[in-house]
Every structure is written in structure tokens, then in C-alpha cells.
Recover the amino acids of this structure.
């Protein structure tokens, strides 16, 4: 059967993507699912849960509620909780059961907004696709609601779009802030980690957006299309590529330039190193390997990503486990850089360098996830 994994685990689901994206902004996120199912998110996909709580709830959907279409219970519970907790906003997302019964989250969100006066988003998740989709919807809903035109600040203000613990280690938000400061730029909002809702409201005071994962791409495109903000893809990994990315950010911030894709994100088809993972992060690893170590690497993305981005980087998008295994076998790479759990399908004779990805292997290798932002990567990839 196609797309059935025998060896590899699945990537984190879209519901967890929503929760992770909205975790730090003071809202109330409600997963419409059976009682207890939010433990999957809080215990496996959210390392911040152990030292910083957030309003993450489950609707405790019962079999009878699902059969009878009892949406009124969800509305009443959300309204009651909102009156007690006073969240900044309310986000509703679904699981497989609401998908099968055809729950209209947009209509329910409108009803809750009308009764509470609190901004409420209905996000079309179903628990069967990856976190990329859920987090992307959440980030876009947030900027649609709160990012409005404000005067530009002096200097080069930058927004970081798409940074969550599903793709980045805790502390990466501080590292990227230091990198911007060292390069004469100022962080306005880090959409995902290290910022609050007031920062989102000031996003348009920045001059350029840096998209560090595909989860931030939809928000970046909305800000470009409706608010005229240019954006660049890339993660400042290594020393050489970080410096190059900083130059491209400063250039894109100029009104006459307004770029969208970083030229340094290169994936070489004739490379002997294969990098497997989320598109923007992995393409940045490829670029950093070349800039810092002279190593040509090729990107293989097993997650959803923009066709334009792949065409620009020269990477491949392959979802099925058997296709990934076959591709790696036919490529004959000397080195494969991927999450440690990929070692079971790495071709015989190839060297495997583990680069843990929380959205793939969960907490198994969480303590060994490296922070590669603006650091010397030679030690890690030697």
C-alpha cells in the first residue's frame, strides 16, 4: 500500500501544528476531539509545556455528540471558558472525527465570536496531515487578525516567520535575535517563539520578513500581498551562509528590491551528500555546508512545501517511505544528514549524521537537537 510506513514514524499532525504556532500569544486553543487526546500534543510535541503553560483544551467530544451533531455544547463550553479565562483570542481546530461528521468550524467560530466579542478562528485541521498545514493556517489567521498598517521604525526591522519547537530547539529564538543585532538589524516579532501578541500588532513596522520554515510561508505571502512587506526564505545556519543571508535581508528591505527568495539556498543534484527534512531548514543546511565547508548537498523534503521554493533550490519532494528509500539507494550518497530514525533506511555503506527533528522523532532525541544558528558547523558535520 502506498504511503504506509513500515519503518519510519509519521510527522507531527496538523492539530499539534496549530497548538505550537499559537502557544505563546495568550489565546485559547481548543482541539475538537475525544477527552484526553490533548495529551498527545502536550507530552510529545510541546517541550514548553513543562515550564510555561498555555490555554490548550480538548472539547471532550463524545460518541453521542458526534452522532447527533451537538455543536451547541462546543459553543457553550468555549463561551463559558472564555468568560472565566479572558483569552486574547480563541482558536478551534479539528481531529479525524469532526472531519468525518462535517463540522463547520468557521460557522462555530463566528457564533463564539458573536457571543463573546473575542476574535475567534476556525482552522480546518483533521489530524491526518502534517504540522506544516496546521501551523501555517494558525500563523496566517493571526496576522490577518492583528497585523495592520503602522509607521515603519527606524533602521532595518525584521520579523521572523515560522519558528516553533517542532522545527527549532528551545533557545533558537534568542540566537536569531543575537544574529540580527550583530548584523545591524532589529527583531520586531518572532512569530512562533519569543514574542507576544503586542509584537504581532507591530509587525508592519518592520521592513522585511524572514521565513525560517514552510509554516510561515502563508503568513509571509499575506503580508506581502496585502501590506507590501517583502520576504526572504532561509535559516542563518553556519557562519558563511548566515552572513550571506544577512546581506540578502538588508537588500530585500530596500523598497526598490523587495526580494522573495534567497539566492544562497542551493541544493545540488550531483551532490554526494543528502539532507532529508523540512524544506527551508534543510535547504539552509545545504547552503551552509557549501559556504562553510565546500560540501555540495542535495535536499529531499518529505513534507509539504511550496513548488516555487523547490524549483528555486533544486530540491526534491517525496512523501512515501518506499520512495525515499529508493531515491537514497539510487543516489548512492556518501553521507545522509537526517533525523536519527532515518538510519534504518540509509543505504548500506553511507555515513549517517543524525540531525534530530522534534516533529519527526518527538522527545527521543530532544536533548541532542543542536542550535546551528550563526555557529561554526564544522564540528557538528565533520
Amino acid at each position: 500500500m502506498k504511503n504506509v510506513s513500515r519503518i519510519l514514524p509519521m510527522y507531527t499532525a496538523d492539530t499539534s501544528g496549530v497548538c505550537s504556532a499559537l502557544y505563546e500569544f495568550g489565546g485559547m486553543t481548543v482541539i475538537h476531539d475525544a477527552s484526553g487526546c490533548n495529551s498527545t500534543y502536550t507530552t510529545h510535541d510541546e517541550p514548553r509545556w513543562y515550564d510555561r503553560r498555555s490555554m490548550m483544551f480538548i472539547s471532550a467530544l463524545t460518541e453521542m455528540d458526534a452522532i447527533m451533531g451537538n455543536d451547541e455544547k462546543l459553543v457553550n463550553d468555549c463561551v463559558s471558558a472564555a468568560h472565566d479565562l479572558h483569552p486574547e483570542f480563541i482558536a478551534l481546530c479539528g481531529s479525524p472525527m469532526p472531519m468525518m461528521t462535517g463540522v463547520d468550524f468557521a460557522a462555530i467560530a463566528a457564533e463564539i465570536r458573536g457571543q463573546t466579542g473575542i476574535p475567534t478562528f476556525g482552522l480546518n485541521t483533521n489530524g491526518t496531515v502534517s504540522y506544516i498545514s496546521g501551523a501555517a493556517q494558525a500563523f496566517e489567521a493571526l496576522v490577518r487578525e492583528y497585523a495592520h498598517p503602522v509607521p515603519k521604525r527606524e533602521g532595518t526591522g525584521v520579523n521572523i516567520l515560522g519558528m516553533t519547537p517542532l522545527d527549532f530547539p528551545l533557545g533558537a529564538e534568542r540566537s536569531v535575535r543575537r544574529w540580527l543585532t550583530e548584523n545591524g538589524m532589529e527583531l520586531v516579532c518572532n512569530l512562533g517563539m519569543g514574542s507576544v501578541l503586542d509584537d504581532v500588532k507591530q509587525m508592519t513596522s518592520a521592513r522585511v520578513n524572514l521565513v525560517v520554515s514552510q509554516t510561515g510561508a502563508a503568513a509571509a505571502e499575506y503580508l506581502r500581498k496585502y501590506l507590501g512587506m517583502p520576504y526572504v526564505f532561509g535559516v542563518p545556519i553556519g557562519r558563511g551562509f548566515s552572513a550571506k543571508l544577512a546581506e540578502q535581508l538588508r537588500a530585500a528591505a530596500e523598497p526598490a528590491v523587495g526580494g522573495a527568495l534567497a539566492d544562497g539556498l542551493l541544493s545540488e543534484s550531483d551532490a554526494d551528500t543528502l539532507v532529508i527534512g523540512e524544506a527551508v531548514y534543510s535547504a539552509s543546511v545545504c547552503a551552509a555546508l557549501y559556504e562553510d565547508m565546500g560540501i555540495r548537498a542535495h535536499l529531499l523534503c518529505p513534507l509539504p512545501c511550496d513548488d516555487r521554493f523547490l524549483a528555486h533550490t533544486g530540491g526534491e519532494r517525496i512523501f512515501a517511505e518506499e520512495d525515499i528509500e529508493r531515491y537514497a539507494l539510487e543516489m548512492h550518497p556518501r553521507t545522509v544528514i537526517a533525523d536519527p530514525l532515518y538510519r534504518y533506511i540509509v543505504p548500506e555503506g553511507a555515513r549517517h549524521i543524525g540531525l534530530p527533528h522534534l516533529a519527526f522523532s518527538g522527545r527521543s532525541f530532544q536533548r541532542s537537537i543542536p542550535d546551528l544558528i550563526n555557529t561554526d558547523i564544522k564540528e557538528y558535520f565533520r
Remarks:
- Residues 131-146 form the longest helix (16 residues).
